[in-house]
Amino acid sequence: MTRVRAAWVVPVDQRPLADGWVAVEGDRVVAVGNGPLPPGLDGPTRDLGRVALLPGLVNAHVHLELSCLRDRVPPAHAFTSWVKQLFAARGASMDHPDEPGVIDAATEAAREARATGTSAVGDIGNSLASVSPIASSGLRGLVFHELIGFRDTTGDLVARTRGAREAASRVNERVRVSLAPHAPYSVSPELFQAIRAEVDRSEIPYTSVHVGESAEEMELLVDGTGEWARILRWMGAWRDDWQAPGTGPVEYLDSLGVIDARTMVVHGVQLADESLRRVRALGATLVTCPRSNQWVGVGVPPIQRFYEAGVAVAVGTDSLASVEDLNLFSELKAMRWLAPRVPASRLLESATLVGARALGLDDDLGSLTPGKLAEIVAVKLPDHVTDVEEVLVSGVDARHVSWVHQA
Ligand SMILES: [Zn+2]
Q1: Ligand 1: distance of its center to the CA of 48 in Å?
Q2: pTM of the predicted model as reported, rounded to 2 decimal places
Q3: What is the Cα–Cα distance from 175 to 26, expressed in whole angstroms?
Q4: Domain count of the chain?
Q5: Which of 76, 148, 225, 271 is least enclosed, having the fewest CB within 10 Å?
Q6: How far, in Å, from the CA of 378 to the mean position of ligand 1?
Q7: 221/305 same-domain check
Q8: Mean of the pLDDT values across residues 257-270?
Q9: 18 Cα–ligand 1 center, Å
Q10: Do 169 and 214 share a domain, yes or no?
Q11: CA 242, CA 224: separation in Å to the nearest integer?
């Protein structure tokens, strides 16, 4: 048995424990507490001193496949400008997702996420290039093979990707593979429903969709006009028989029957309170990526309103094409800045337990709880700490993060 003691233990599923300890047997946590170790658990204990111990974090939305675009897509004032720059920068790599540059950058990014205290990722890819990098970095994850097809009238894309998805699922037990539609402005109603049916049939019935990210998306859905309609026509992807639903994206996707409790609704920057209440009623998890939202020019997410609406909120960094690093503590810092009244404990829960639940990994990850995997991170603390949770959401430099135990 391994025992570690620290100035603070932040289990997430209970209040922080001053002078706390965690006992580990094999790869599992067996007990968490503070003060003297109880009889039966006592024995040699490693005292780590002025650090906080917490569970590994869960980055619920990232695109490791785009890591090769780090520093290559500058911040934009409008989402459609950023997307055009992304297309230009992505160029050839989009056609050759298995080329070494793509894999090497994804591997380095996965290692960076791991080194900054991440246990698991919800990763989106138009190929399955990220599966091996995730497994080799020590992360766990759910990779969503993302489909795009605004003109797809049959859902044929789903059948065509089935073989690749099933093959990738067998690569490593740390990484599972599911399917995801990209967004309401890039996926046809038929493809949305075909993906949903396939996900419902699979052993991993979790999915994800970008929703309510930009004002341009809202404009397209309300009356079929605006910059997105122009871009779809310019790309030759427009479909003349497509009818704008005349609603917001949550209402539209709910009318198609494609959002449920195992759906991650990513971004939600533009969602009104009524739509947020609908997300809550459906039991879906909203994943916020505040640094990316600002980078791509869609504004700041209404984080306070997300929590006030009672929605389950998880946290993602998004890709290195729209954020400077994959340190989830930096994302928490952005959330704290944008939502000063949300309790730090709620923000920490979002970056751990809520994300783990959304990915179906909460039996093993998301809190320091007896029976779960001993994925234990230490964060070096400043001299005088009165509110350890506040310290953890105020920005933690990568140098101050280390792994105490990895499972
Ligand atoms: Zn995304």
Answers
A1: 37
A2: 0.96
A3: 21
A4: 2
A5: 225
A6: 29
A7: yes
A8: 98
A9: 38
A10: yes
A11: 9
- Regarding whether 262 and 388 lie in a shared domain, the answer is no
83-107 residue pLDDT tens: 888 888 887 556 666 677 889 999 9
- Ligand 1 centroid to Cα of residue 124, in Å, is 7
Q: How far is the CA of 185 from the centre of ligand 1 (A)?
A: 14
Confidence label for 160 from pLDDT (cuts 50, 70 and 90): confident
Q: What is the sign of the dihedral through the CA atoms of 334, 339, 340 and 344? A: negative
Statement to judge: residues 67 and 47 lie in one domain: no
Joined together, the tokens standing for residue 402 give: 């280390």
> What is the Å distance from ligand 1's center to 189 Cα?
20
Q: Can you tell me the distance from the alpha carbon of 132 to that of 121, in angstroms, rounded to the nearest whole number? A: 13
Tokens of 25: 């047997």
pLDDT of residue 42: 82
Span from the CA of 398 to the centroid of ligand 1 (angstroms): 23
Q: Are 20 and 341 in contact (CB under 8 A)?
A: no
pLDDT for residue 124 is more than 80: yes
Q: What is the Å distance from ligand 1's center to 314 Cα?
A: 14
Task: Please give the Cα distance from 6 to 17 (Å, whole number).
Answer: 9
Ligand 1 mean position, distance from CA 341 (Å): 27
Q: 210 C-alpha to center of ligand 1: Å?
A: 6
Looking at the structure, tell me whether residues 128 and 38 fall in a common domain. no
In the reported structure, the alpha carbon of residue 354 is separated from the centroid of ligand 1 by a whole-number distance in angstroms of 18
Q: What is the CATH number of the domain that holds 371?
A: 2.30.40.10
How far does the centroid of ligand 1 lie from the alpha carbon of residue 275, in Å? Answer: 20
Taking alpha carbons only, the member of 120, 15, 25 closest to residue 366 is: 120
DSSP 218: H
Q: In angstroms, rounded to a whole number, what is the distance separating the alpha carbons of residues 257 and 263?
A: 11
Q: How far is the CA of 279 from the centre of ligand 1 (A)?
A: 18
- The DSSP annotation for 262-300 comes to TEEEEE-TT--HHHHHHHHHHT-EEEE-HHHHHHTTS--
What is the DSSP track for 47-65?
A: E--SEEEEEPEEEEEE-GG
